[in-house]
């Protein structure tokens, strides 16, 4: 039996596009991020990578840089959470 290929949801695709737009600013400081999941409730789960892992300002990057950008551009996003 052949499995049907799963298409990413339109919300997931839009989140990925916004993250790609802000990624260079994060990478400029030696960090990076990985999109882990977008829930049906609009929660975006992000894994911080590189210098972001031990950075004391990582919570500001998450809340101000990532969450505010996503919520401003995609009304369905309700929250951004960092996951391990």
Which properties best describe this structure?
GMP Synthetase, Chain A, domain 3; alpha+beta; 84 residues; 3 strands; 3-stranded mixed β-sheet; 2 helices
Report on the architecture of this protein.
By secondary structure, the protein is of the alpha+beta class. The chain has one domain: 2-Layer Sandwich (GMP Synthetase, Chain A, domain 3). Helices cover 42% and strands 24% of the residues. The protein is built from two helices and three strands, in the order αββαβ. Strands 1-2-3 form a three-stranded mixed beta sheet, covered by helices on one side. Helix 2 links the parallel strand 2 and strand 3. The N and C termini lie far apart (35 Å).
Count the domains: 1
Overall average pLDDT: 90
Major sheet summary line: 3 strands, mixed
Low-confidence stretches: none
Number of helices: 2
Give me the side-by-side strand order of the main sheet: 1-2-3
Q: How many beta-strand runs?
A: 3
CATH topology, what is it called?
Answer: GMP Synthetase, Chain A, domain 3
Share of residues in strands: 15-25%
- The oligomeric status of these chains comes to single chain
Radius of gyration: 14 Å
CATH architecture: 2-Layer Sandwich
Distance between the termini: 35 Å
From the helix content, strand content and strand pairing, which structural class follows? alpha+beta
- CATH superfamily descriptor: Fe-S cluster assembly (FSCA)
Tell me the overall shape: globular
CATH class designation: Alpha Beta
């Amino acid at each position: 039996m052949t499995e049907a290929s799963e298409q990413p949801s339109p919300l997931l695709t839009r989140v990925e596009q916004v993250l790609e737009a802000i990624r260079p600013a994060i990478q400029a400081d030696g960090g990076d991020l990985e999109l882990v999941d977008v829930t049906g409730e609009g929660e975006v789960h992000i894994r911080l990578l590189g210098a972001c892992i031990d950075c004391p300002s990582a919570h500001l990057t998450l809340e101000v840089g990532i969450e505010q950008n996503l919520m401003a551009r995609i009304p369905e996003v309700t929250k951004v959470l960092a996951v391990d």
